[in-house]
Amino acid sequence: MYQNLILFDGVCNFCNAAVQMVIEIDRQKIFKFAAIQSELGQQLYRQHGLDPTDIQTLMLVDGDRVLTKSDAVLEVLSRLDGGWQLLAGFRAMPEPLRDWAYSEFARQRFRLFGRRETCMVPTPELQERFLNN
Fold first, then answer.
1. Phi and psi at residue 35, in whole multiples of 5°?
2. For residues 33 and 49, is the Cβ–Cβ distance under 8 A?
């Protein structure tokens, strides 16, 4: 069972930058990470009915709870130190509207921010926070 595991698109520049931001802010080191392209990421993506060859959402796995799209983002923000919890107030917006905006951004992320040829390789200091098997 995984707790506080963020699955992200490992070749998306925006997604990698967001993971780096979470790492910086998450001083308590509650979050772990895995690229959806990793064996673990593909397994969990499939297990929850998503196609790992068509990555359109990040996923937060927290025990029995699995969140995607805007719910996942807002849950991560709500657990970060600082003023980030205030952004979780967007939960007041209807979920279909939030998820529509999330999906539209996800469709444009490569055009706006580009993509990498391969997934990021964590530094030795960060290796313990990345699950890749």
1. -70, 140
2. no
Amino acid identity of residue 54, one-letter, is: D
- Single-letter code of the amino acid located at 21: M
pTM recorded for the entire structure: 0.90
Domain boundaries, the chain: 5-129
Handedness of CA 97, 98, 103, 106 (dihedral sign): positive
Report DSSP letters for 79-123, one per residue. HSSTTHHHHGGGGGS-HHHHHHHHHHHHHHHHHHH-B-SS-----
35: left (phi over 0), alpha (psi -120 to 50) or beta: beta
Mean pLDDT value across residues 47-60: 92
Calpha distance 68→56 (Å, rounded):
10
Closest CA to 16 of 30, 37, 42: 37
As a whole number of angstroms, the distance between CA 114 and CA 37 comes to 17
Give the phi and the psi of residue 75 in degrees, each rounded to 5: -65, -45
